[in-house]
């Protein structure tokens, strides 16, 4: 554990709240301490209110904020005195507690205070820090965890047995703290949950967290349970994309909606999924209860999704029968899949969610392996975990969740994605919630959409069958399938009359505009057949199909052949629920090939200004890449659910076509 406190940085903080922000971010930077919204921090400050009275205010992390990126606005100011009165109640149902907390917040628009607010309030220290440190979990999640914690920390910490977070936990902590805290006490260990530290200053509280976790790490080292060698693991060399897509389809069916499924076969993940004891240790439960909301209680072993879903339904029925309130079952689909060939597969409604699952499980493997090295990993009981998974507060969140964007959980592949219409298609699909695989010969495709988890840009020459299958393999490993295919890449050669047309040029145009698309359609067909909502293909044709121009023989003929190919695909694939439609754009000038000079020259040859040339159509309107992309995206959506084999012009109206 490295103490990251920098006196120079800290001296720039102008208030206790700013110091709180600074040291919270230091905790957030270390993913062995907190992950994705886990953990929380607070500071107690004296403030004067609008009528001049002094009040003690507890600034506590608001829900929905992450310690790594938290700002002052991410802390909810709550009046301390009423919190201390609430803490003296014998019982308080959590939904009512949440209401009480909300009514004591002093800033309109502040985030909801953490459910651990009362716990922070009762600790008689100015600064309080709370993490779910991996090292502490590895030790507490063993059969003699409590004994080991006592051995490591003596009376430097108060030990609290596992209790559900919320009011009951605050009560138990208050009682333990009162009974056991000594002048030497600098923290509190919550078995199977995490660790608290506290102090008079931000630096002291943070420093104590680092010191306490460091002692846990040293203990693991001393017990030979820290540096664990990753055994060599060998994944499958054969293409896995169809198996992955079939698995994702089954998971989506169980989940009741499309999902992203990312496969990870890098060292630690593959080694864990192949380890001799994975069948036992992975089935004991999560490292800390709040992971359950992302990972579910148990990972799935192998690929039998219906057996997993059945076991989940039984788990729900078994435990819901004893719950205080009637519960609504969450979907029974797995979130973590351990497979000897695939490694670890992570499932989420979006690429971001699947990424969070990946990170949580990465750390879970460390906690499990270290606890095993200490003598045996132990998790909470099924009932305790059920109570957390079906906590009132989480069920309420579920009821209030809004409608996600239309392509949430779906995966689109766009060719020619580095610029022009292709780039605009990437943006239109991302905006609608899809994860997107972009292909282009230009390496710029890697950053078409900037660095973001739901976009994978791959340099790929689509005229190479080998390159296409390699790209599909990478894309499916990243997201789990291909549901939407946008065949956009194409070349528009310089004008060349038939009388002098060279066969090489003719072939080059057909290679890209026609043959490559045939390869892509053939290779994507089995993936599109597995799309949870049915596959969709949009083909970029051209106005030239209906209204060819002189000098554009190769272009017009290749696009006409492509259009015919799409029509046949619509006929052949309809029974599998795959829709194939064609757009015929014309005069889209905001693309790479149309430089200012080319535009001016072309406009002049028609005797028009550039502006007039751009609007030279029936509607007198300019057609932009984004207009084509929006229509392409909509063609894949519910509005066109019953349309296939269509050809739609997007050209502002062309008198030769009409
Ligand atoms: Zn916690």
Supply the key terms.
L-fuculose-1-phosphate Aldolase; binds zinc ion; 7-stranded mixed sheet; 658 residues; Rossmann fold; 43% helix; single chain; 7-stranded parallel sheet
Distance between the termini: 71 Å
- Poorly predicted runs are none
Shape: elongated
Radius of gyration, in angstroms, nearest whole number? 30 Å
* Structural class by secondary-structure content: alpha/beta
CATH architecture of the largest domain: 3-Layer(aba) Sandwich
Summarize the amount of helix as a percent range: 40-55%
CATH superfamily of the largest domain: Class II aldolase/adducin N-terminal domain
Query: Bound compounds, please?
Result: zinc ion
Walk me through what this model shows:
This protein is an alpha/beta fold and 658 residues long. The strands form 3 sheets. Strands 3-2-1-4-7-6-5 form a 7-stranded mixed sheet, with helices on both faces. Strands 14-13-12-15-16-17-18 form a 7-stranded parallel sheet, sandwiched between helices. It has 4 domains: 7-222, L-fuculose-1-phosphate Aldolase (3-Layer(aba) Sandwich), CATH 3.40.225.10; 241-399, L-fuculose-1-phosphate Aldolase; 411-588 and 624-648, Rossmann fold, CATH 3.40.50; 593-622. The mean pLDDT is 94. The termini are far apart. Zinc ion is lined by residues 130, 132, 193-194. Residues 130, 132, 193-194 line the site of zinc ion.
